[in-house]
Amino acid sequence: MNLADVIAGADPLTEPARAQVARLDGHEVLVICTLERTAVVRVKGDRELRLVRLDRLEVDPESLIWQQKTDLTQVQVWKLRARQRRRS
């Protein structure tokens, strides 16, 4: 099943966890992160990251691990506060 369909049917407050296996054009890849319509992937054994549409990635829905979506704005606030504490 393609990753776009799996995500469309999942809880909207969750997202696939990092470094999960998928297939792209018959090659095994690691899904580093998912975005709205695309995913950042790394072909196994390669250092280069690629941006790929979710509907091109084939996954086993039963083997996916899900995590709560990260509020990037909140993470950015935490990083800014941490930097400010280090400076003072």
Word description of this protein:
The chain is an alpha+beta fold. The chain has one domain (3-87). It is built from 2 helices and 7 strands; from the N terminus they run αβββββββα. The protein has helices at 3-8, 72-87; strands at residues 14-16, 20-24, 27-34, 38-43, 49-53, 57-58, 66-68. A hairpin with a 3-residue loop joins β3 (27-34) and β4 (38-43). The longest helix has 16 residues, at 72-87. The protein is globular, with a radius of gyration of 15 Å.
Question: In summary, what is this structure?
Answer:
By secondary structure, the protein is α+β, with helices and mostly antiparallel strands. The protein has helices at residues 3-8, 72-87, and strands at 14-16, 20-24, 27-34, 38-43, 49-53, 57-58, 66-68.
Topology (elements, then pairings):
Layout: H1 3-8, E1 14-16, E2 20-24, E3 27-34, E4 38-43, E5 49-53, E6 57-58, E7 66-68, H2 72-87
Antiparallel strand pairs: 1-7, 2-3, 2-6, 3-4, 4-5
Helix/sheet category: alpha+beta
What integer is the average pLDDT? 90
- Regions with little confidence, pLDDT below 50 for 5+ residues: none
User: Approximately how much helix is present in the residues?
Assistant: 25-40%
Gyration radius, in Å: 15 Å
Number of strands: 7
Q: Indicate the proportion of strand residues.
A: 35-45%
Q: How many separate domains make up the residues? A: 1
- Tally of helical segments: 2
Element order: H for helix, E for strand: HEEEEEEEH
